[in-house]
Inverse folding.
């Protein structure tokens, strides 16, 4: 098949949508499909264009047999509602140069990972012009999240965004998403189940696998064998509920063996660093996002992994960091609303600890319970790895997706 993918995020970004879009395209190309991508310069989660791409304009590169067409665009130094809209709109306009060329090519399938919402504009026009099948792939219900998390408070603007989103959902030939909870919300918007495709996120279970503490990066990072490390690794945004980390650090300040490690980048990182410094919290360590090739050995430093999510984000997104934790056989401490996809995944498999979202006292209670339950932690780690091997294997997930798209009519 000739496949065109249009997304604002792409490899070599290590987290979020760019990671999954890059892996999907490279996997499909490896299977013999002709895959092209129209995307931006890599910038996420640092919100800064990578050094190797700075100062460049429109150009094409080939990454693992995928033809990647890059476009120049605006990346704000400070992310606000207004600057983010300008950022996304600049990509839409700038990518027109590639789309004007693509309009005269024939593709068998167009895939557009969402968000951002504007990502539907060019695929919609192309699919109408060529009668090509278009899959609108939802990684994050952006408008619902903006409303429920209070990121956008203007009801008129939210109503307009709702209408645009519903327009793309209706006009797309197929709509896919990553969880049963998101599927339920999408179908509730009036989308028929016949046009829905389940495409869960995945993990390379052969690459990300359990490792011992002795083989981990503990010594390299200056931690001891007897330290109890509670790790958060990934995007530090406003949807994650990371404000719980500060009171947790205060609670464990009297236990010097308990270390809290925050690794990654994002809009909330500077605020957390200021609060840590002002509170004189010596048990919190900040690290940059670690290289993918070291991910197994880095995840292995942790006794426990924090997977935090606000109540309002329930079933609007699914934290992708959890998949790597499960594959690494890590012991996750997850905040999830009862009966959400995330809650059911952990509860039904006993693959981690569960705490109430936005309930700091309950989270601390669960962390203390986990620390005092070594035999239960061993069981949860074993269950985590088993779940990853059975349900999250990259070849299995993408193989099923390939079968689906090959039969689209």
């Amino acid at each position: 098949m000739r496949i065109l993918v249009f997304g604002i995020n792409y490899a070599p970004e290590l987290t979020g949508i760019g990671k999954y879009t890059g892996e999907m395209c490279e996997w499909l190309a490896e299977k013999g499909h002709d895959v092209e991508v129209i995307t931006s310069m890599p910038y996420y989660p640092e919100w800064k264009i990578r050094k190797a791409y700075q100062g460049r304009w429109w150009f094409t590169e080939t990454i693992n047999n995928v033809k990647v067409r890059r476009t120049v665009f605006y990346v704000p130094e400070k992310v606000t509602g207004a600057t983010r809209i300008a950022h996304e709109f600049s990509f839409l306009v700038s990518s027109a140069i590639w789309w004007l060329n693509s309009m005269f090519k024939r593709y068998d399938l167009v895939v557009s990972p969402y968000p951002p919402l504007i990502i539907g504009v060019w695929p919609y026009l192309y699919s109408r012009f060529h009668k090509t099948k278009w899959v609108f792939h939802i990684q994050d219900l952006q408008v619902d999240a903006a409303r429920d998390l209070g990121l956008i408070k203007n009801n008129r603007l939210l109503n307009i965004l709702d209408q645009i989103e519903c327009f793309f959902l209706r006009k797309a030939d197929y709509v896919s998403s990553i969880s049963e909870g998101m599927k339920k919300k999408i179908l509730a918007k009036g989308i028929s189940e016949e046009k829905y495709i389940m495409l869960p996120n995945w993990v390379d279970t052969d690459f990300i696998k359990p490792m011992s503490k002795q083989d981990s990066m503990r010594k390299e990072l200056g931690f001891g064998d007897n330290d109890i490390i509670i790790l958060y690794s990934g995007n530090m945004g406003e949807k994650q509920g990371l404000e719980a980390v500060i009171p947790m650090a205060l609670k464990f300040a009297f236990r010097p063996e308990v270390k809290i490690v925050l690794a990654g980048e994002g809009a909330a990182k500077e605020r957390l660093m200021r609060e840590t410094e002002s509170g004189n919290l010596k048990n919190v360590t900040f690290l940059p996002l670690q290289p993918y090739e070291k991910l197994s050995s880095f995840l292995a430093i942790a006794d426990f992994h924090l997977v935090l999510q606000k109540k309002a984000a329930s079933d609007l997104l699914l934290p992708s960091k959890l998949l790597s934790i499960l594959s690494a056989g890590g012991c996750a401490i997850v905040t999830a609303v009862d009966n959400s996809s995330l809650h059911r995944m952990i509860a039904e498999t006993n693959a981690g600890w569960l705490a109430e979202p936005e309930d700091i006292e309950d989270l601390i209670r669960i962390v203390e319970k986990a620390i005092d339950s070594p035999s239960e932690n061993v069981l949860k780690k074993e269950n985590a790895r088993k779940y990853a091997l059975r349900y999250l294997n990259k070849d299995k997930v993408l193989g099923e997706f390939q079968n689906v798209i090959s039969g689209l009519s």
Observations:
- The chain has two domains: 2-202+394-406, 218-392.
- The mean pLDDT is 92.
- The chain is about 40% helix and 15% strand.
- Residues 374-392 form the longest helix (19 residues).
